[in-house]
Task: structure prediction
Amino acid sequence: MIETRNLTKRYGNLIAVNNINLKLSEGDVFGFIGPNGSGKTTTMRMIATLLNPDHGEAYVCGKSIYTNQEDIRRLVGFMPDFFGVYDDMTVIEYLEFFCAAYRIPGSKRRKICEEKLELVDMSFKRDAMVNELSRGQTQRIGLARTLLHEPQVLLLDEPASGLDPRARIEIRNLLRRLGELKKTVIVSSHILPELADVCTRVGMIEKGNLIVDGNVAEVMKKARQRILLNIRVRDRVEDAAKLMEQCDTVEAVSIGKDQLLEVTLKPNVEDYSEIPAELVNGGFALMLFREEEVNLETAFMELTKGLVQ
Ligand SMILES: Nc1ncnc2c1ncn2[C@@H]1O[C@H](COP(=O)(O)OP(=O)(O)OP(=O)(O)O)[C@@H](O)[C@H]1O
Result:
């Protein structure tokens, strides 16, 4: 559906996007994560044929961005991070205007607009003036606008920015639905945890380089050099800590808040089944035993060096 090969864009001496290789299939929801200025928008604009690369290729549904720009624009819905709206237009008029721009026949426009308004939960504002909407409502109308021509591929640049927590959850549900509808979606964000449970894949970009690309679990695994365990025993915490220190797989043990044992395993240790066994055999009453989760935020900090251009 989307493929890039060594996609590169320079602005003078600055390499905004550096040799990016991506391959996304139907139904993939790809979370494109990176700090300000890392190259997310530039990458999306090249895929949307709005910007020419200096080097490399990109294909959308097998069509090259160099030779099939018109076809690609029909296949792609691009939602920029900021977009203007017009004065003196109601929401429904605004959407119908874009239907006309997409050459959707007049007889079908109203129905399509109503459907998309419903999808983004904005039917109640259909007759409001489009320039009088809140930021979050404008974002939702922008998303409805992006979906009007039933694009197969969606490029959404920070669709959740400026939205309240409830609207963010709704956008997440919408992204999930788009994946289920077999659309291919690239969605950018710097709000990392937001994407973890919606995306089928994530890529982290820094200084124009795609540092990691894989499914969420793979990325987490890559980020986690050492497993950290949280253990609680009913009593004799210090003794339990000493016992843990003697285990071959354990690198360090500390006693944290509320007497919680924090056990760091040696690098690349994956099987830690001996630990609960040792505790139980040692006569300790095990109250809690869990592996600390690596969230996308931690993964990003681990995998990047904070080199923002
Ligand atoms: N038209 C331009 N001329 C010169 N430099 C540009 C231009 N557009 C972008 N850049 C630079 O390219 C780099 C990548 O910018 P880009 O907008 O792709 O980042 P981004 O990851 O989308 O950032 P943000 O999260 O802030 O939207 C930045 O350093 C930016 O300053």
